Amino acid sequence: MFNSSKVVGLPLSRIDGPLKVTGTAGYAAEYSAPDMLHGYVVCSTVATGTITKIDTSAAEAFPGVVKIYTYENRPKAAWRDSKWKDEVALPGHPLRPLNNDRILFDGQPVALVVADSFEAARDAAALVQVTYEAGEPHTDLAREQGDSYVPPVPRMQAFMPPKPRGDSEAAFAQAPHQISAEYTIEGEHHNPMELFATTAIRHEDGSYLIHDKSQGSQNSHDYICNIFSLDPETVVVRNSYVGGAFGSGLRPKHQLFFAVMASLDLKRSVRVEMSRQEMFYLTWRPTSIQTVSLAADDKGHLQSVMHHALHATSRYEDYQENVANWSGLAYKCDNVTISYEIAKLDVPTPGDMRAPGAATGITALETAMDELAYEVGIDPLELRVINFIHRDQNTDKDLTSKALHACYREGAERFGWSERSHEPRSMREGNELIGWGVATGIWEAQMSPAEAKVRLSSDGKLTVSAAASDIGTGTYTILGQLAAEAFDLSLSDVTVKIGDSSLPKTTVEGGSWTAASSGTAVQVAAKMVIATLLKAAQKIDNSPLAKATEEQVEVAEGRLVLETNHQVGIALSDIMAAAGLDEIEEHAKIEPDKSIQKKYSAYTHSAVFVEVRVDEELGQVRVTRVVDAVAAGRILNPKTARSQILGGVVMGIGMALHEEGMVDHRTGRIMNHNLAEYHVPAHADIEEIDVIFVEEDDDKASPIGVKGLGEIGIVGVAAAVSNAIFHATGSRIRSFPITIDKVLGATALESETLQ
Ligand code: MOS
């Protein structure tokens, strides 16, 4: 009942773009209210221990200070963490800001200074004197390995390793080719441009409009209402525009708690914005140590896969992600053992960060695959091709689709892979060693329950609404496109309202599921409006559509018409006038199809090709070319889709070469908590990135054929870079990020052995 693609599939610019570039899109810290107060957080300067004394007298005397909160005077929050369940809940006890005198990690909030200006709050915060009895910090994962454990309460059953299959130990021992290696990845910190901030605007009647930087306005809303016992009807939370998040905004952050706590106590509007340094005391991609052992026969067919993954968690929660299970389904192999553990450190609870788990585990697996290719003596791409499988061996389910062969083929062709010489250190230009590497990427194609409303007004314009978030991904635009397409309109005829807790129920934006989920809800709501139009049309005397079914009609050029004959139909305005309707609004509620999920697994796939140039004397690595070929089902908007992949690749380059939270393990404190010393790729680090979307038809992953794109762009990139560095230099560096010191150390060794 829908037209062939007219709006969906076009590379349209995002509808929120002009608002963003002109500064008119409001972010959480940009809202104000008359008489608004400002909060500033004081963070602990020890990683573990207890607070023995807090002296706030000097700070309180500072001009403009209204009140200082510590654990000693914090208003009671009826903490109902047993009743309220964070959509992204973890086993354990979420942080309760200012709950008691215990310190669990460096940077933990220990006081909130509220003043009549931001500057006063900040300056007074520096005068709060906190005395600690510091404990001995344990922040080094390598040293705490002995205390690792299997999470007793799974965050998600699907994160737990599948049962071992076959006999991986015996198959490993018998195979002619084996590799086994340990891979470490340092912790990474989410650093979206927009700082975490909440502006709690209190109305005279005690109701609230809260602007919160988050990936889910309703998750924040329910959290606030539960812990402060607020009537849900009196609170609206908005995240109209989000300046990046990458998973850091999935769970409510302490600035939301503080802004609302102070506002309720002081009966004033309050804004709390974090500093850049504080952003490093929040969620992070945990430090990991992994061992991968692979074995193959003489042709390269995998005989055994063993993958053990360990990563850090905090003292108070068992953070978990799916790190290693990918190794059981990426390639065909009948002997597989996967194990997964976590270890407690004196650190903040880690959190989901773009492709959580996969970015970590597949970095290890895909570097190991490259090692195996060299052990067997075949082309690394060929090794992947011959071990392809169109089945999820972990769950023994068929796949909804897997156009990975096309990714390998089209990516290789665009990159020029066939020109590659197999031997390491065989390509050089002047001082630069040139290397080409490849890796596979995988992410889940998920759907979550979603609701949306579509309203058609008598002027022929549409309004789409849902609580959904756009964290920079393009949600506004693609939801508008889907609605426009259903009514044969252009995108400019559609108003999209999202980022508001009072709108139809939507889960947090994460896991790459928003396009598939909210997109389906919008399409279903649009169909419902058309069905209502048809019913109204059939009540008209001598209606030409009297016998038509919902499947037989569509909207074209402002008329409801027969799909097979556009001459037969009635203008929408006539239908609405005849029925006496000013508008038609329908509310769709969709859920993933359980019968499909029972039978099929759904994943997105990619093949990443990377060229590096390594300065032999300086050890500097440049990523000069990347081709990322992605199979992600139907692409709703090639422009916003490409941007997602570009961003993912850039983050992947950061993971490979730059990003690393550096902790002084003697104090347990992070040392490089600023964007000068925590390196992320800058413009000068990014050269050519080519994105290919291969054709992939999938009617099962989601009803609209979409698989999601937020995460897949990062997956495999770090491995492809490390494999390219090996090809360039002949040195295998298994510790990420691959910084200059590691390259220099390894290449110096390599040159010596060659002499
Ligand atoms: Mo994504 S890490 O689920 O926001």
Q: What's the quick description here?
A:
With 755 residues, the chain is of the alpha+beta class. The chain has 18 helices and 34 strands. Helices cover 26% and strands 26% of the residues.
Please characterize this protein's 3D structure.
The chain folds into three domains: 17-23 and 447-591, 2-Layer Sandwich (Aldehyde Oxidoreductase, domain 4); 31-136 and 193-244 and 249-279, Aldehyde oxidase/xanthine dehydrogenase, a/b hammerhead (Aldehyde Oxidoreductase, domain 3, Alpha-Beta Complex); 146-188 and 284-446 and 598-754, 2-Layer Sandwich (Aldehyde Oxidoreductase, domain 4). 26% of the residues lie in helices and 26% in strands. Strand 31 (663-664) and strand 32 (669-670) form a beta hairpin. Helix 13 crosses helix 14 (572-579). The longest helix is centred in the last third of the chain and has 25 residues, at 514-538. The termini are far apart. Dioxothiomolybdenum(VI) ion binds next to loops.
Report the CATH superfamily of the largest domain: Aldehyde oxidase/xanthine dehydrogenase, molybdopterin binding domain
Q: How many separate domains? A: 3
Question: In CATH terms, what is the architecture of the largest domain?
Answer: 2-Layer Sandwich
Outline, from the CA principal axes? globular
What's the average pLDDT? 96
Q: Do you know the CATH topology of the largest domain?
A: Aldehyde Oxidoreductase, domain 4
> What ranges have pLDDT less than 50 throughout 5 or more consecutive residues?
none
What is the distance, rounded to the nearest whole angstrom, between the alpha carbons of the first and last residues?
A: 71 Å
Estimate the strand proportion. Answer: 25-35%
Q: Any idea of the CATH class of the largest domain?
A: Alpha Beta
Bound molecules: dioxothiomolybdenum(VI) ion
Radius of gyration: 27 Å
The helicity comes to: 25-40%
Tally of contiguous helical segments: 18
